[in-house]
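INTERNAL AUDIT FORM
Audit reference: QA-55
Scope: verify that the stored structure record matches its stored sequence.
Auditor: D.O.
Record contents follow.
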Amino acid sequence: MDNEQIKKLSDEKLIVLDSLFKGKTDAQLTAEEKKRKAIYADYLYRLQDLENNAKLEIANNKVRKKRSLEGDREEAREMIEKMISERIYPIVTVPAEFWPNIQSEGGLSAHKTKYLPDFKKIVGTLGVGAYNPQGRVLLQIECDPNDLEPRMTGSNLTYHGIVGYTKNFVPLEKIKLLQ
C-alpha cells in the first residue's frame, strides 16, 4: 500500500494505524516496521472498503443480499489468512482477575460475552483496536487461519475485524500476555 492509499483511510482507521506504530513517522520506522505498517494499512483499507460497500448496498436495497454477505465473508477469510501468514495474531481481552485462572487451567476456555450472551465463544479482534476498558488484559492468540471465523457484525452486517475462534479452548502455550 502506498501513501496515496493511506491518505484515503478514514480518520478512525488512521487512528488505529497510528496507534499500532505508536505515532512514529515513516522515517522513524525500521524496514520490518514499514513492511508491517503496509500490511496493516492494506488490511484497514480493505475493511473500510467492505464497510462502505455494505452501507451503500443497504442504502440502495434496505438490506444486505445473501450473495453479498457470502462475498464479504470470503474476502474476510482471505484477509485473515494474509494477517496470520504475516504472524499478526488476534487479540482477546478478558477481565484481569481471570488471568490467574487461565494460567492454572492451562489455557483460555470459551465463555459468554457481552455481545453473545447466549453462547460460549472466544471472540477477539484482528488488526483493529482491541476492546480494552480498564480492568482487562490483552491476550494475543497464536493460531492458524482455520482456527478463526470472521464475525459479520454491526448495523451493516459486514466484517469489521472481529473474529471468533472455531475451538472452545486455547492452550496456554498459544497465549501471550500483552499487558
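Auditor finding: record pair retrieved intact. The CA atoms of residues 75 and 161 lie 12 Å apart.
Action required: none
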